[in-house]
Amino acid sequence: MDASALPSPISPDSGNLKERIYARVRPDLARIENEINCLLNSDIPLISVVGRYIMGSGGKRLRPLLMLLAARICGYRGDEDARLAVVFEFVHAASLLHDDVVDESSLRRGLASANAVWGNKASVLVGDFLFSRAFELMVEDGSIQVLAILSRASSVIAEGEVLQLITANDTSTSEDSYLEVIRAKTAALFAAACRIGAVVADRPKIEEEALESYGLNLGIAFQLINAVLDYSAKQAVLGKTVGDDFREGKITLPVVLAFRRGNDSERKFWVRALERGEIGDSDLDHAIGLMTKHRALEDTINRAQHYGAMAVDALALFPSSPMKSALEQVVAFCLARSH
Amino acid sequence: MDASALPSPISPDSGNLKERIYARVRPDLARIENEINCLLNSDIPLISVVGRYIMGSGGKRLRPLLMLLAARICGYRGDEDARLAVVFEFVHAASLLHDDVVDESSLRRGLASANAVWGNKASVLVGDFLFSRAFELMVEDGSIQVLAILSRASSVIAEGEVLQLITANDTSTSEDSYLEVIRAKTAALFAAACRIGAVVADRPKIEEEALESYGLNLGIAFQLINAVLDYSAKQAVLGKTVGDDFREGKITLPVVLAFRRGNDSERKFWVRALERGEIGDSDLDHAIGLMTKHRALEDTINRAQHYGAMAVDALALFPSSPMKSALEQVVAFCLARSH
Fold first, then answer.
1. What is the CATH number of the domain that holds B68?
2. Do B47 and B116 share a domain, yes or no?
3. Residue from A47, A102, A125, A196 to probe the interface with B (highest B Cβ count within 10 Å)
4. Are residues B130 and B205 in the same domain?
5. d(Cα A301, Cα A210) in Å, to the nearest integer?
6. How many domains, chain B?
7. What is the pLDDT of residues B234-263, one digit of tens each?
8. Would A1 be classed as within a structural domain?
9. What does the pLDDT read at residue B239?
10. Domain assignment of residue B224, given as a range
């Protein structure tokens, strides 16, 4: 598939697109919400409160959605998969809680982050709890194959987080190193959710691998668009402060490209701002100006469209179906997300 | 078994006792050290370094030891269990890393804590990695029964950690609430290690449950003695600063007993020191003085001996054997640990 055939991130109808995708599996998503709600009941009120906060605050349930759609493109017709799909939202929520502690973030999706409200300690420990519950849910499901895929993904995610910690603030990070981080940190869970969809449907390995590839490439595209949004979205739209990554000294692809394409004085600017953390009032605007000058945001979107196209191509072996369209639309939605 | 038959914590020969216990499974422990070392190899140096630091710094490998001894009292004669035993050390190390972040500790076993050396971020993330690897190891082992026991224990541990966070600094904590915390936070992993020993040996449920009960009661006794040590051990012996719990406002059984047995002015002292954190130079000595006056340390040891006796009694259904003696000696060693 030609990348240019994908909707550009400026597409105005991503709201409708989202509605159409979610409509395909609405009863299952309702079941997932219900399961999440039940599973967050705890004798320890702080667990319920923090858990509901992190899992209720406007999440797209993208990872469970992917597992459901993947199972259905493989012909699965049961309703036993909703409970397993919850696992991905729990693992994701656990990593959000720990991420916010590590990044010292005070906002998430426009609301105060959990660590800002309940402190780092509660975030670390409730994250541990959600992660443990996720494993318990998988064990209840009883498939060693599912457990193998997700426990491997969890290790890869944790490695990715550590790798990101090491490369944080290093302006000399290469595009490849950056991709290695987001592949591990974000795309591995997307890939696992999609692959497990095929496992649930008991499909041959070639379909498992196709869906894993779909999820991996989608995850990379998703994270690249996240990086662009941090320098371009309006806070009200994304529920995030523009420039969070910049203020935290996070090296994302727009920075990598602007740094590499810049001259000496521009590089000195990036080093001062991102490595030494010396950031003045006008520096974010200056950074965005340099990115515009070097087409860094535009090219990051181009890269995202490349991975989006790979994701769509990975589905080629599946015959046309409403579920295949839905998975293609997820790619379009992720690319179009900012508008 | 009568509690008074157990060695008192003042027993001078705990070093020899330890040697005798470990001698029973020395080849397996060597295999465990080797496995830990291999498993900590990572392409990401920070993971290897922090992992080796937390797992190499004088740990007793008590949880793997318990699993090995439990498997052997059940007649297991293979050598396949060493790799699974490593899981318990990984889960334990992960919780140590997160604990030190939550407690803001700067020392562990006489060395700088990992968070003091590499920061909270690395401790949170390497903890997540070790926890994920533990699950991967279990999945490789392939037993759903093992996975069910340990994933349940992990959730209970996380709940215990959150519960401790809530009751921290609350001098009105009851003895029962305190016991609930240590049962979840510490004893659940001991219980899981012992129960899984029986599962590995493929023994009937009654033996699983006996070993679980042994582990649970041993874990409670172990943690009670820890609480006593914090007010009595010399730093050089334990590799810990005396009074860490006091300075962190941790409510342990010696505090619960001294608070409840104290008069109004003593209670005001505990509230000021532990709830408001207003601690002067002589306050630790004063706290120890109050504990002595109310026999709070002595009675905490008595309580520990009670749980130790229950642990030993839980083994009654096993015939006499060197492995049974070893498990009994572990109880004696835990109680005698401070000397």
1. 1.10.600.10
2. yes
3. A125
4. no
5. 24
6. 2
7. 544 656 668 888 988 899 999 999 999 999
8. no
9. 60
10. 143-320
Query: Does residue B85 carry a pLDDT above 80?
Result: yes
Are B113 and B221 found together in one domain? no
pLDDT for position B245: 87
The answer to whether A44 contacts B148, with C-beta atoms less than 8 Å apart, is: no
Single pTM value for the model:
0.88
Torsion angle of C-alpha atoms B245, B122, A116, A110, degrees rounded to 10: -160
Q: Is B206 on the interface with A (CB under 8 A)?
A: no
Domain end among B88, B119, B142? B142
- CA atoms lying within 13 Å on the CB side of residue A171: 21
Same domain, B106 and B163: no
- Domain for residue A153, yes or no? yes
Amino acid found at A292: T
Task: Report the b/e string of A231-268 with b at 16+ CB within 10 A.
Answer: bbbeeeebebbbbbbbbbbbbbbbbbbbbeebeeebee
User: Is residue B50 within 8 Å of B40, Cβ to Cβ?
Assistant: no
Q: Do B158 and A124 touch (CB under 8 A)?
A: no
pLDDT digits (tens, 9 = 90+) for B295-332: 999 999 999 999 999 999 999 999 999 999 999 999 99
> Quick check: is A215 in a domain?
yes
pLDDT digits (tens, 9 = 90+) for B128-187: 999 999 999 999 988 999 999 999 999 999 999 999 888 888 999 999 999 999 999 999
For the four alpha carbons of A23, A27, A30 and A31, in that order, the dihedral sign comes to negative
Cβ count within 10 A of residue B49: 17
- In terms of domains, do B137 and B54 share one? yes
B152 interface with A at CB cutoff 8 Å: yes
Which region, left, alpha or beta, applies to residue A202 given φ > 0 means left and ψ of -120 to 50 means alpha?
left
Taking one residue from A and the other from B, the number of pairs with CB-CB distance under 8 angstroms is 129
Read off φ and ψ for residue B108, nearest 5 degrees. -145, 125
Give Cβ neighbours of residue A128 (< 8 Å, ≥ 6 apart): A94, B95, B98, B131, B157, B158, B161
Residues B96 and B243 in one domain: no
Q: What is the DSSP string of B298-318?
A: HHHHHHHHHHHHHHHHHTTTS
**Rounded-to-integer distance, Cα A311 and Cα A220, Å:** 10
Kind of pairing between the strands at B107-108 and B111-112: antiparallel
Which pLDDT score, from 0 to 100, does residue B13 have? 57
Say if residue A4's pLDDT is above 50: no
Same domain, yes or no: B124 and B40: yes
Tally of CB atoms within 10 A around A78: 9
Coil vs helix vs strand at A108:
strand
- Helices B322-336 & B205-229 angle (0-180, nearest 10): 20
Please report whether residue B1 resides in a domain: no
Q: Last residue of some domain: B114, B142, B170?
A: B142
Model pLDDT, residue B16: 78
- Tell whether B30 and B167 lie within a shared domain: no
Residues in chain B within 8 Å Cβ distance of A154: 132, 135-136
